[in-house]
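Recall that a protein's primary structure is simply its ordered list of amino acids. Everything else, from secondary elements to tertiary packing, is in principle encoded there. The following example makes that idea concrete.
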Amino acid sequence: MGDHVGKATDADFDETVVKSDVPVLVDFWAPWCGPCRAVGPILEDLAEQYAGKIKVVKVNVDENQQVAGSMGIRSIPTVVLYNGGAVVETMVGLRPKEQFVSLVEKVLGA
């Protein structure tokens, strides 16, 4: 994980994500998931590119089943964009970087 990507757990999800004052991209992933490992570097790039404007956090679904369950995460990777404590959009599966960029740009109103 890069310097710009944080972690969220069942215990601190509300504090880290829901109560964030900037939009948050949440990456629901697991270490054994190949496509998840492919999404990781893309999200690290975004976290660096938009540092201070958005947060990027990873949630390991094996270790944090409560959050994943309450969110209805069925397959991974699933990337969920939060803004103002609410889910704005959910993307499932490996996507090209451009799709993540346009998602972030949309929420930032750029």
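Residues 5-104 form a domain with the Glutaredoxin fold (CATH 3.40.30.10). Residues 34-49 form the longest helix (16 residues).
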